[in-house]
User: Fold these one by one.
Assistant:
Number 1:
Amino acid sequence: MTTASPPLADPSASRTTYRQVLTEPRFRLLFSTRTLGVIADSLRVTTFSALVYAGTGSALLSALAFGAGFLPQLFGSLLLGSLADRLPPRALIAGGYLLEGAAAALLAFVRMPIAVGLAVIGAVALVTPAFSGASARLVARWLDGDAYVLGRSLNNMAASGAQLIGLMVGGAAVAAAGPRAALAAGAAAHLLCAAVVRLRLPRLEAEPVVVAVGAGGGAVRDSLRGAGALLRHRAVRRLLFAQWLPSAFVAGAEGMIVAYAGGRHFAAGSYAVLMACLPVGMLLGDLVVGRWLRPAIRERLVVPLIVLMGLPLLGFAADPGRALSAGLLLLAGLGFANGLGLQREFLDALPEEGQGQAFGLLGSGNMTLQGLGPVAIGAIAAPSGTGAAMALAGLGTLLTAAWILSWRRPRPTPKAAT
């Protein structure tokens, strides 16, 4: 397998528009159901965390309830990720929404020990990479070239906006009707997504189905073999870490915002404003980079945009005030658009078989490292302070940019070939 850097996009390539991407009806259906699903996920995660804290008064258990839906996903991708390529996608995606709805309904209507509730959330997280990988594989099949990149951009923007909506709706629903009613609303949203996918998504040809999970461990063995092959592929491995590491460092800094605001005695509620600055910056960055820049320019801006993620965080070493902190976080959020310049390279580097598992591994690794980032940066904050820890997260992002630059540098064209 070659490890040479993929060529950058043709500078003369035409720029696709978001409107053109949304004219694809199958993508539009997946996009709309995924947006509603992210809102329901955010509602479930935050509400269950609040329910655990109300019942136990334990900040640790509340944090475990918040992270239980993210951390197990990497293990699920390693053990069950091959199902994204083996099972019929419509049934798999609809089944995923149905399973998430059933889990939220159990939490809403059945009073169970906290440990059992955490196990329910963790079980859903284990199989989530298979559902998300199947959906991403369909998007890659139905959208070509720049349309695929903009499709990913739309999904990113929708996810950021949906998380904000889920946080706002969750807080209002808990205040108005209590956490169990809010969980029931999230369950209903997931069940609606399952019904729409089952009834409206075209039926695709069934692919070979792995049914012998118990008899010989076929699905698990294939998943481990597929994940190992992807991680041994140098180009794929580099592109995975190029997408994982910057967001993990910034997530670590994001996890310090509440402590930073509290330690500097900002006005009550300031932490919520500061936490909203990152997703707002992400929305703006994806919109600007995806809408107005040509494919070749996006790909050349990957490293500068990663630098933009990390450089503002260095400013927290000087303990900025509330307004400057908001500006720094907004700038860091803009840099998340670097991912748009890596999508074509990542898709081109993947083998023909196993694309669904690769997309599942990309998403699950991202979620897991973003869950571990705050833990690592929080451990640094104990001796050094929150501002210094956030600055170190920025430094880690800059070092990642330097590493990516070392292997993404365009190579000169040989004279003979010219």
Number 2:
Amino acid sequence: MLLRKTAWFWKSGLAVISFVLMLSVSGCSDAPPEEDTVSETVIDIQTIPEEPQENAEEIINICIDLYKKAAEENKIDDLETIRSIVNQFGENGYPAVDSRNQIDMTEAEQVEWFCEMVDTQEEAEITIIEVSYLGGFVKYDLKTKDGNVDVVRSYYKYENGNMKREVTGSYQAEYWNYTEDGYLMFSGVWFSEELYVLTLSGAEEHTALRVQPLDETYRELSRKYLLPIGFEQNNMFIVDWSEDDFGDLNFYDMYDLLYQKINGTYTPYVADDNLGVGAVYRIPKDDFESVIMAYFNIDSETLQSKTIYYAEDETYEYKPRGFEEVEYPEYPYSEVVGFTENSDGTLTLTANVVFPYAGDSKVYAHEVVVRPLENGSVQYVSNRIIPSEDNYRETWNTPRLTAEEWEEIYGGE
């Protein structure tokens, strides 16, 4: 079910805070130069309702001992620690899941019931806990009436033996969808008094909570082979390619990504401090190829044909991403939903691409073939987008500049 609303604030009889902004503008409009124009904007924002307190203390007491133990063992972000916290909430009757959707939601039937109440436009309320890997959790208090969903979002952080509420905000869900793939996805702009005083605006939030369980083997495959690559500044999982034809796979982006995994640090070949200057480097052949060939079964000749290579000094030309190639920092992630063990020792992983920012749990599906190696590492063999008329455009991806675009912007500098 989809709900699209224009109101983002709680409808209540609470007091109204009025902010009057006086903005003087001089010399930057169509008014005569000798005159100043003054515009006045009045913004009325309803007071943020207090978080429901009847269960806040109870929820803290449920998990505080686990957080103390995790902090003592320096395992606050450990998957098994998060799992124990999620399950502890479930044992006490609360729907809970981790923020990366790597653990089956507890008390999922309560969430399904609430979604049914939204669909039938009945009154209902629920509390859902989203456990973070940063040492805390978000408590969503949801209420529905007439098909609308109001959200109170409270973030709690563990610190020095205590669980402290950091911020509470609220909004009416502008988007609400319980998807066929088992995700509850909702979004809106939430407001807190502290945030509004500082920014005069709210914070946009896109929440994706997996409600339906997923085979643990699928999750392990995702964590091992797909999530480490991801979608940030690379096109490995958004174009078709294989060892026989690497197609449009960008090996410069792969070098950036894989260099970090091999060396534990970012590549030293960085953009110029002057944004108007395009930096150009020449990376020694062995240095460049050792990174790429650790993850791909590709020979030098093929790699050189997909890049710019100088045979005279055996170097690869490299241009770091610049300002024009920056991406909006909202990315999807791949979630394995099936796999096949092939006779040649490779694995074919079928995955859905989940994009919380778009409120879609399957912007498209793809097949990735990987070759596990004896030393525990992996080679990536191919990627294939599964065709569908519902496939979503990869709006998050900004390709590297072409040679012509780079020349036009930097003029050969």
Number 3:
Amino acid sequence: MRLGLIGLGRIGAFHAETLVGLEAVDSLVVHDQAPALVRAVTERLPTAEPASSVAGLLASGVDGVVIAASTATHPELILRSIAAGLPTFCEKPISADPEAGAEVLRQSSASSVPVQIGYPRRFDSAFVEARRAVAAGELGSLHTVRATGMDPAPPPDAYVATSGGIFRDCSVHDFDAVRFVTGQEVVEVYSTGSNQGAPVFGEHGDVDSAATVLTLESGTLAVVSNSRYNRRGHDVRLELHGSKDSVAAGIEPSWPIRSTEPSTTFPDGPPHYFFLDRFADAFTRELSAFTDLVAGRIASPCTVADAVEVGWIAEAATLSLHQHRPIRLDDIRDRHTGRSRPLAS
């Protein structure tokens, strides 16, 4: 299988390493607007070859395309890849602009070309097992979900300026995990946040720590906590509490927390410090699934509709933060599409 990769920044270069290591991938064609990044990848990876433009990559005989370029380019690149008839993987989010995301959904829905959006927690073994336990009814009726996503240090200032805010670039992983594991849609969002670190967040109308309460369709409450300043490490967890049992993903030896219980040594492993080490296996499974999608063996494990739905939640959370009130998801959907029902299956 011959794949194309557009974007060779931090996550793109990481994906290049992963892709050339997959058994299904024979060759990789890469492109980035920065020639130095292209040279760095092709010099390091013998099976990677350069393309001088997006058009050249799309016409180079690839069987599918992986998009890891900047968020602002995602809608155009997805639609160009679809127009070329090429199965497409795109890093989240589809767009920081909900209307642009809705347009990608409209056009992609009219095409038979499959698209997979990158949400790696769907491929983490613990999250997958939690989803199975919920679906099997082992927890009974869910009353509380707690999702955590905390980074050890904030991203560069330039990233903060263009990310769209903590809910759109960070919390979306937790929002997607809640939908994926519970199998439920969000009906209402209430968010708050604060700034106790670098002033850059406040300068862009953002916060460095946030809490969001999601009301799910059954009445289940999901509490999502996010921060840019979790110095001990990269803390990603999902707890699910039900009438019969409780389970958690992410409570393991490298969980970056220190217990104050006397004589307790757990967790006793080196703390996860970065998302690339926390989810290394999940990223491999995610891209391996994409090769199955390209080969026609599976349907998309994370559709454009899924990603757009998560985008509505992030939009509602951002609005709630600034207006200090709960936001109904139907109001957000109606504002941008006129639809009053979930876009995702």
